[in-house]
Specification:
CATH class of the largest domain: Alpha Beta
Distance between the termini: 37 Å
CATH architecture of the largest domain: 3-Layer(aba) Sandwich
Length: 361
């Protein structure tokens, strides 16, 4: 089966734009959005285009956002710097890609054994996370917003079966963010690369295994063609937040109503993106199992235990980081995780466990 290709969507003009008064026309801004994704990649590529369209719509056309996919204007790994330096006005990516800037950034996207999608948003909106997010990204001249989430990611695609934590040692494995720190502590050679590059790595043997997102996106990239063993749970990323970063000077000069339009475009997209991932992950997993021969496997208990020990070491190191802001971010995350996690024992976890007992009625 050939790997899926992604078709460039055409932009559609409106009659209203042509009828705009000179004063309104002069108030228009044309923004370049650079992304870390191939054009229209199911999941993040689709979400990026949705965000560009939503900002344009909610601003009444006063901000026209044109999307440039990875490599069209700058390489995917370069979108943070492009916005920081003013080459583009905004980007769509994930915080897990910016650990070289500061380890503290990584907590805003995903954390091993950390926050679920709803908890991640709750931390930022109601647990003090957004203020810390702003403070950290402000160092680089960027105003950050969460704008979506993949939900629980998967453990990864493995060419060979995993029977114990020992089997992971020396393995060449694609992952990013704090998950890569966790895996490295287990003796894994963690490597960061794009989804298409991960496919090539698995195909050529340069990689033994790797994780990207989840069934919807992973099936589109064709990983099942080169590795049939699909492992869960993805404890390295219980969720993965997508973000929009806007050049700080560009954002600051906006009138208040346009600042609100940008902010609400991001905030209002979080739940639709997350629930679309969840819905299409479920459909895609069933299709891969029934039609592509994918073998779904659970990580052995000792693998999960060793991952937990390694993740604890990663968090301990962040708590002792020489950067005072990284320490504050880490303590805020841990405090929120423990508080909400304790409640979830009775709430969501209780409901899911109860439902599993009677599933099939």
């Amino acid at each position: 089966m050939e790997r899926r290709t992604f078709i460039k969507a055409g932009a559609i003009g409106t009659a209203a734009a042509a009828l705009a008064s000179p004063a309104i026309a002069q108030d228009k801004r044309q923004w370049k959005m650079v992304t870390a994704w191939p054009k229209n990649l199911p999941g993040p590529g689709v979400a990026a285009q949705s965000l560009a369209d939503r900002i344009t719509t909610l601003s009444g056309g006063r901000i026209e956002v044109k999307l440039y996919a990875s490599g069209e204007l700058v390489p995917g790994p370069g979108v943070f710097d492009a916005v920081s330096e003013g080459t583009a006005e905004l980007y769509h990516a994930v915080p897990a890609y910016w650990g070289s800037k500061s380890k503290g950034i990584l907590l805003f996207g995903s954390q091993p054994f950390g926050l679920r999608a709803d908890e991640q948003f709750g931390w930022l909106m109601h647990g003090g996370g957004q203020e810390l997010y702003d403070e950290m990204y402000g160092r680089f001249g960027i105003k950050p917003f969460l704008c979506g989430n993949s939900g629980p990611q998967w453990g990864g695609w493995f060419r060979d079966e995993i029977n114990s934590a020992q089997d992971l040692k020396g393995m060449k494995f694609r992952t990013t963010g704090l998950a890569s720190e966790m895996m490295s502590k287990m003796g894994v050679a963690a490597q960061a690369m794009s989804g298409p590059d991960m496919f090539q790595g698995l195909q050529t043997g340069a990689l033994d295994a790797g994780e990207f997102i989840g069934p919807w996106t992973d099936s589109a990239l064709g990983f099942y063609q080169v590795a049939k063993n699909y492992y869960w749970p993805g404890v390295g990323e219980p969720s993965s937040a997508e973000e929009c970063g806007v050049n700080g000077d560009v954002y600051a000069e906006l009138p208040d109503d346009l600042k609100q339009a940008v902010s609400f475009a991001c905030e209002s997209l979080y739940n639709p993106v997350w629930t679309e991932y969840t819905t299409k992950h479920a459909i895609s997993l069933q299709s891969m199992v029934n039609e592509q021969g994918v073998i779904v496997k659970k990580f052995p208990d000792d693998v999960i235990s060793e991952m937990g020990k390694a993740a604890g070491e990663v968090i301990d190191e962040l708590r002792q980081d020489e950067d005072e802001l990284v320490k504050r971010i880490t303590e805020s995350f841990v405090s929120y995780r423990d508080s909400v996690g304790g409640y979830m024992t009775y709430a969501d976890n209780g409901q899911m466990n109860a439902r599993a007992q009677v599933l099939g009625y």
